[in-house]
Automatic annotation (TrEMBL):
<feature type="region of interest" description="Disordered">
    <location>
        <begin position="215"/>
        <end position="268"/>
    </location>
</feature>
<dbReference type="GO" id="GO:0004623">
    <property type="term" value="F:phospholipase A2 activity"/>
</dbReference>
<comment type="similarity">
    <text>Belongs to the peptidase S33 family. ABHD4/ABHD5 subfamily.</text>
</comment>
<dbReference type="GO" id="GO:0005743">
    <property type="term" value="C:mitochondrial inner membrane"/>
</dbReference>
<feature type="compositionally biased region" description="Basic and acidic residues">
    <location>
        <begin position="238"/>
        <end position="247"/>
    </location>
</feature>
<dbReference type="InterPro" id="IPR000073">
    <property type="entry name" value="AB_hydrolase_1"/>
</dbReference>
<dbReference type="Pfam" id="PF00561">
    <property type="entry name" value="Abhydrolase_1"/>
</dbReference>
<dbReference type="GO" id="GO:0055088">
    <property type="term" value="P:lipid homeostasis"/>
</dbReference>
<feature type="domain" description="AB hydrolase-1">
    <location>
        <begin position="95"/>
        <end position="412"/>
    </location>
</feature>
<dbReference type="GO" id="GO:0035965">
    <property type="term" value="P:cardiolipin acyl-chain remodeling"/>
</dbReference>
<dbReference type="GO" id="GO:0006654">
    <property type="term" value="P:phosphatidic acid biosynthetic process"/>
</dbReference>
<protein>
    <recommendedName>
        <fullName>AB hydrolase-1 domain-containing protein</fullName>
    </recommendedName>
</protein>
<dbReference type="GO" id="GO:0042171">
    <property type="term" value="F:lysophosphatidic acid acyltransferase activity"/>
</dbReference>
<dbReference type="InterPro" id="IPR029058">
    <property type="entry name" value="AB_hydrolase_fold"/>
</dbReference>
<feature type="compositionally biased region" description="Basic and acidic residues">
    <location>
        <begin position="257"/>
        <end position="268"/>
    </location>
</feature>
């Protein structure tokens, strides 16, 4: 059910001093959150707010809305890209699902090629905020299972998200979907496909969380302390080398081990700040709860993170991303509290997907994607591909993206966009 989007005021700059950060804090709210999201989406020439006319001559039209679920307090923030010439035999729509503590606005650089695909195939693309995250309803997150009931805790935590996705699908009257998930969103995409296999056409998993057994070399606190230094500090390439590096490559054993070795070296150099975040995480805090509790410094912490982590963006894009991240981070805590029920200290899953994934339908296409500077362990993806093939599924593939970290879809957007479109067409 669509709601009227507010009129956009002039864009605000990233706070440059403490007083500006404090002013930004007080302006956080639902209206400002909608404005910050729309500021990112307005970069798309095919996006139309409720006040703008929709032209029939356009190949696709994108709109933003809330989809109301059965519970009056539950709704899903939804970005829709729809072909204006639907094809009778169109492939199932693609649904883009963000990671932990993020939101659909993170994918603004990936929507144009996905929109081109939707126009060419006469289908649709959707992006959602998970229930309890982004700009979806921030409803209470509770687990009734006892702490010792491992499977019960995991099942409840997963169901909070995947059952709301199923309800959204039903409300949107979609028979099948291709799920494109990043990080924890990729984990939930697999969990959804295991519970509702008849509703999933394909899985495209970008730097998926919760795949391998045993501890990662990195900690879950990286969601807040990660930076793009290893990506942006890569040596300058010639134009020919850049074309080669911008493409995606099938994951070889050697490439996987290179990524793992870099993760191990970074772990050994882990800063005191990151260790503090990890300790607080393991004590039951989320990094976003920590930021909200620092009343005076929260906006500045977010500004430092967005500037450091998204250094591949232009200054204007970084400014708007900062504003967007601040609004969704400082909103009421909800779905973020799932993390301690799903991940053990050390950022590995309590019920790893590598041990569950073989139960997927044998004809389902599953694509794993990791950056060559990723902090998610690619060995989990490699072993999952083996498990799927052992179970009789020949459609599992894995790729390594050059010059990319955990936010692989932004770090090397051209390569990931090309890979996603090819996977959708395959």
């Amino acid at each position: 059910m669509a709601e009227t989007a507010p009129t956009l005021p002039p864009a605000r700059e990233i706070p440059a001093a403490f007083t500006a950060s404090l002013r930004s804090w007080w302006h956080v709210g639902e209206k400002q959150s909608a404005i910050s999201e729309e500021r990112l989406l307005r970069r798309l020439p095919f996006f139309r707010s409720s006040s703008q006319p929709q032209l029939a001559s356009e190949p696709v039209v994108a709109t933003s809305s809330r989809v109301q679920l059965t519970n009056p307090a539950h709704y899903i923030n939804t970005f829709s890209i729809k072909s204006t010439s639907p094809a009778p035999n169109a492939p199932p729509p693609a649904v883009v699902l963000h990671g932990y503590g993020a939101g659909l606005g993170f994918f603004f650089h990936n929507f144009p090629p996905l929109a081109d695909w939707a126009a060419r195939r006469g289908t649709s693309v959707f992006a959602l905020d998970w229930l309890g995250m982004g700009r979806s309803a921030r409803v209470p997150f509770t687990i009734k299972a006892k702490r010792t009931d491992l499977r019960g805790r995991v099942a409840e935590a997963e169901s909070f998200f995947i059952d709301s996705l199923e309800e959204w699908r039903n409300k949107m009257q979609l028979s099948k979907m291709t799920l494109i998930g990043h990080s924890l969103g990729a984990y939930f995409s697999i969990a959804y496909a295991l519970k509702y296999p008849d509703r999933v056409h394909k899985l495209i998993l970008l730097s998926p969380a919760g795949i391998p057994r045993g501890p990662n070399y990195s900690e879950p606190s990286r969601e807040l302390t990660d930076d793009a230094s290893s990506v942006s500090s890569s040596p300058k390439l010639t134009s020919k080398e850049n074309r080669e590096q911008s493409s995606f490559h099938r994951a070889s054993q050697g490439r996987v081990q290179e990524v793992r070795q870099e993760q191990k070296e970074k772990k050994e150099r882990e800063s005191r700040t990151r260790r503090l975040f990890t300790y607080l995480w393991e004590e039951g805090w989320s990094p976003f709860q920590l930021v909200r509790s620092t009343v005076f410094w929260g906006p500045m912490l977010i500004g430092k993170y967005s500037t450091r982590r998204f250094s591949t963006l232009t200054p204007e894009e970084t400014r708007d991303m900062h504003d967007y991240i601040m609004n969704i981070t400082l909103a009421k805590g909800s779905g973020e509290y799932c993390i301690s029920h799903i991940l053990e200290p050390g950022a590995h899953a309590r019920l790893p997907m590598v041990d569950r994934i073989a139960a997927l339908p044998k004809d389902m296409q599953v694509t794993f994607v990791y950056g060559d500077h990723d902090w998610m362990d690619p060995v989990g993806g490699q072993e999952s591909v083996r498990q799927l093939k052992k179970a009789g599924n020949p459609n599992a593939k894995m790729y390594i993206i050059s010059n990319a970290g955990h936010h692989v879809y932004l770090d090397n957007k051209d390569a990931v966009n090309e890979m996603m479109v090819k996977a959708l067409d395959r």
